[in-house]
TrEMBL record:
Pfam families tied to this protein: SpoU_methylase
Protein name (Swiss-Prot/TrEMBL): Putative tRNA (cytidine(34)-2'-O)-methyltransferase
Catalytic activity: 5-carboxymethylaminomethyluridine(34) in tRNA(Leu) + S-adenosyl-L-methionine = 5-carboxymethylaminomethyl-2'-O-methyluridine(34) in tRNA(Leu) + S-adenosyl-L-homocysteine + H(+); cytidine(34) in tRNA + S-adenosyl-L-methionine = 2'-O-methylcytidine(34) in tRNA + S-adenosyl-L-homocysteine + H(+)
Organism: Candidatus Ruania gallistercoris
Reported function: Could methylate the ribose at the nucleotide 34 wobble position in tRNA.
């Protein structure tokens, strides 16, 4: 895995998230355009994107920049060196509730009542979340996005968008137009 170069992306996230409703967490993402798409989505929804290292790309990657279009300066992105650091941050500045999205559970994501500050956690593109993360005591619940049984999974950025919009919808889209 390549190390991240955060010099090309806005990382100036205020320590208090008063204007931000939800946290999106990508655990060790590998595909730059997925993260770029998520950066764009977090900019338009007012959420924060957390990236847990190691990343499979540099944050200066052209594909990441292109997918995020000109939304990089409008997005709140935070990079964490490892999973424990991300958990500590989310417990300090979020609600402390972390929902792990996985295909290995029967609970649908729409059955959850999301609260302000909740974190929506997604695994790496080819394999999903590792067992040690799914089993972590910090995980509030494992949830899934329904899909047809003959397919493996949804695209990472699409999954994150589906989840964010459901959580945001439950609160009446605050700050949205």
């Amino acid at each position: 895995m390549r190390s991240s170069d955060s010099s090309s992306i806005s990382l100036s996230v205020p320590p208090e998230y008063s204007a931000l409703v939800f946290h999106i967490v990508f655990h060790e993402p590998c595909i730059p355009p997925n993260t770029g798409n998520a950066i764009r989505m977090t900019a338009v929804t007012g959420t924060t994107l957390h990236l847990v290292e190691p990343l499979g790309f540099d944050l200066s990657d052209a594909k990441l920049r292109r997918a995020g279009l000109d939304y990089h300066d409008l997005a709140h992105v935070r990079v964490h060196p490892d999973w424990p650091s991300a958990v500590e941050h989310l417990q300090t500045y979020g609600s402390g509730r972390i929902y792990a999205f996985t295909t290995h559970t029967d609970q649908h994501f729409g059955q959850v009542g999301y609260a302000e500050g909740d974190a929506l956690l997604f695994g790496t593109e080819p394999t999903g979340l590792p067992a040690h993360v799914l089993d972590d005591e910090a995980i509030t619940a494992q949830v899934r996005i329904p899909m047809r049984p003959a397919v493996r999974s949804l695209n990472l950025s699409n999954s994150a968008a589906i989840a964010v919009y459901e959580a945001w919808r439950q609160h009446g889209y605050p700050g949205g137009v």
